[in-house]
Design brief:
The chain is 30% helix and 13% strand. It is α/β, with parallel strands linked by helices. The protein has three domains: 1-54, no CATH class; 66-191, no CATH class; 196-314. The chain has a five-stranded mixed beta sheet with strand order 3-4-5-6-7, sandwiched between helices. It has a two-stranded antiparallel ribbon with strand order 1-2. Helix 3 packs parallel to helix 6 (175-186).
Amino acid sequence: MKKLKMHSPNLTQENIARIRELFPGCVTEAKGDDGKVRLAVDLDQLRQELSESIVEGPQERYHLNWPGKREALLTANAPIAKTLRPCREESVDFDTTKNLFIEGDNLDALKLLQETYLGKVKMIYIDPPYNTGNDFIYEDDFAENTEEFLKRSNQKDEQGNRLVANTESNGRFHSDWLSMMYPRLKTDNIKPDRTSEDLLFQVLLDWGVDLTLPISKKNVRVKKDEGGRLKDEKKESVPSIHPSSFQEFEVFFVDENALIACFDTGINEELVKELTKFKPLRVVFRDTGFASDAAKINVEQIFRQMAPHTEVRSI
């Protein structure tokens, strides 16, 4: 008989196992506080393996940081000793339904679903923190008092001496909120190979477009740019090596022109100009779908000139 697991996966150990697959010499075994042997990473050896590209010390780089981020990362990776319990008496067609309603903390739910649904979920939407009257759902007031925040953000030492001259205290209203959201965004099950239809519904939800509006899919045929790409006035044109001088793109039309979306690759200036003729309220493309950097840069300019009321977005 198969035993039911009473805890979620240990993501820290899984992450170390992934490192071992790439760098087996950087992973060893060590005893934990409970005396059990666990996998551990030899950071010095890993640094040596990555010596040509590792970022360390005060080198500048883009990142988001706040007091409590390390603890939030530990929370995201830590397993939980919980399980899902069926509520047949509160369910409708429990054995045959294709829908699942989980009541509880969304971080716990994400962790419990991760092992079964990893890489299978097309989209996850998380409601922001809120309170509903006296029914306390999330801790909406994430503000800590000024003294606690200054100590935790290293602006005061243990004796209360100020270490930073800036008296701004806005950060204390945001750090706990970021620490709450970070594990939930990190613990995802999103599949990497989403279809164009998946992306379209993501856009509809993001923009708040009515999901009951009619959606049609059409093939839009346009001329290829010379060489199958945008012309560059500073360079000589490259002769086309393609037998056909036309290219077709799959385009979604939501309620005719309420929203137009194209997630194909190789998007060129000819397609963009063709879509402006529909005067859509919104248009969206895949960020990596443009034939060149010039095509990506010129999209907004073309719509500004030919359909100035269209809102343009890339995802």
